Amino acid sequence: MGKKHNPRFLKVVEDAKTRIRECTVQEVKQKLDAGETFHLIDVREESEWKAGRLPKAKHLCKGILERDIENVVPNVAEEIILYCGGGYRSALAADMLQKMGYTNVISMDGGFRGWREAGYPVETDPS
Fold first, then answer.
1. Is 105 helix (H, G, I), strand (E, B) or coil?
2. Number of domains in the chain
3. Which of 92, 99, 120, 126 has a CA positioned 20 to 30 A from the CA of residue 20?
């Protein structure tokens, strides 16, 4: 079972989810397997990133996402899929990117936890 979140946080996430698009971990896996072109961005903290991540993901933690996204994805029309631990922080990040003018942003519902539970491959830093 995932982390228990506070009610006010959940309220903000639910509000953001009324304005964003979401996809499943299975849809992301299919896109990766098909070699589709899109930006896969991990918005988790550095320690989470180092512990494991989706293949081909780029790391822009939620704390610097708004500051650095234009360097990573200068074209606001390109597809961006965001993920976090469970799909809450990525929903908030997707909402913010849309406010910045990005038009093709998707949050991966279930996040990294859902990806691992599905048994999909994970990349880690070499020891």
1. strand
2. 1
3. 120
